[in-house]
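hey all, quick one before standup. I had two proteins in the batch that finished overnight and I want to keep them in one place so we stop losing track of which output belongs to which input. First protein below, input sequence then structure tokens straight from the run.
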Amino acid sequence: MRVPRAVSPCLRSSFGLFAGAILSTALLSSAQAQGVTPPPAIVAAKKVMICADIGSPPLSFYKEDGSLVGAEVDLGNAVAKQWGVTTEWKYVIFDDIIPALIARQCDMIMSELYDKPKRREVVDFVDYLNSSESMVVLKGNPTGVKTLDDLSGKKVAVQNGTTVQSLIEDENKKLAGESKAPAQIVVFPKDTDAFQALRVGQVDVYGTTVKTAGYYFTQAPDLFEIAGEPFSRTVIGAAFRKDEKDLEGAFAQALDAVRKDGTYMSILKTWGIERDAL
């Protein structure tokens, strides 16, 4: 009877490398079948790790049953599907989110991160969404508000410390220069309080972002509408380490694919934020 010879360590090592190469090639072929080629490291891991400050409806938040949902979550998942991989979302507080990316705690950031010149000194961006301010009124717009100039003499709810609060304060200075009555700014600590004040008629208008307005529209579609056009637009993007142009390029390619096949706009409409489409 022939006794099998032991395989030498060198042969085992070579075989392992060969098998690994076959596996990587198979995974890459699977990802390419989706139409977009991700970096080999993403393919090998079979997932992409995304840093996010989760808890900002309707972009990313946890439902009562613990499931993670939101427009950014759906969009990140759609990109990963193009790559043939899954997503893993890592919660990081916003102030630490860019340092976490630089420290390689995740592959990328999708977390309502504004694409600003100062941030571009540290990370690269692929933009995927606008962030606009809006004026929310009761359905039918009984006060007839369409522009900031129409806020003269109106009671306007804002959340404390928001961009729109500053914009309305600036508008009041303009109205004063035109000898018009200023808007009466009513400050609330939370969005829910401001929307309740609008619902019961304590204020005429609520100034907030299109994203926040869209979320409440999905919760109560027959109560509110946006008055006029969104204003004061800023761009939101996915952030990448500067030494990973391949991942950045793969994201841009996948994003283009989900825009062309209609997935992008479908996601935005689901969450009531199609007005912020890029």
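OK second protein, same deal, sequence then tokens:
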Amino acid sequence: MVDNVVHSQARGHETRITICRPDQRNALNRDVAEGITAALLTAEADPECRVIVVTGEGVRAFCAGGDLKAGADGGPFVQDPADPDHFAGRLFETIQACRKPTIARINGVAVGAGAGMICACDLAVMADHAKIGTPEVKVGLFPMTIVPPMMRVLPRRKLMEMFITGVLLTADEALRYDLVNYVTDSAGLDDKVAELVARIAAQSPTAIRLGKYACHALQDMTYPQQMRFAETLLPRMAQTEDAREGFAAFNEKRDPEWTGR
């Protein structure tokens, strides 16, 4: 899929979704959000796709936050106050709910909505020159729509410091606080992403799909509820074609041939 703001390309078992607004530092607007959402849903339905990579065009920015425009009252936001639904929130929910593994390829600065997308993804690889932050307080706002995905990733005190000071994290700080999995130099960014894609693509798509489903369901349950859910799901997973193939391949000392069923 190609349009003027989002490019989606299948590359073997990887689908790469790229925000294509380098002159606007890949800022998020409705068209971008809807383009990424459509590309995610298409990749999720593609049986050849095992991993989805989200990134920005160029080396300056992954996503420089929301594309703020002055409303009729002069405020830095265009939104119907009578309608709480917002395209950014829907985008984060779509990424979070995706049944296939998602990797944020952080090629440059990621602030506001960019930070939210990173936290909504399963994994993240960051170039060492990039920074991540939530500078909304500098324009009199608070990053409301990105609070939910970021709260699930970052320690509370560091998160509050980011929110109320607007200070950006360096790549080393992002790694230290588990906001990203790996930091590389710019030249090694694609190699590290490719390494992760290959590792994931070699595993059972069914196990990953059901595992992601379980992890998202478990995180808001009490501990006893988590145990009951896990106990119920495990026998179901053992009945899948991939589980039977995995057991057979292990016993026969060969590589498994996954069907994704």
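Flagging for whoever picks this up: The beta strands are 6-11, 14-19, 51-56, 61-64, 102-106, 109-111, 123-127, 131-133, 169-170, 182-184. The two ends are 26 Å apart (CA to CA).
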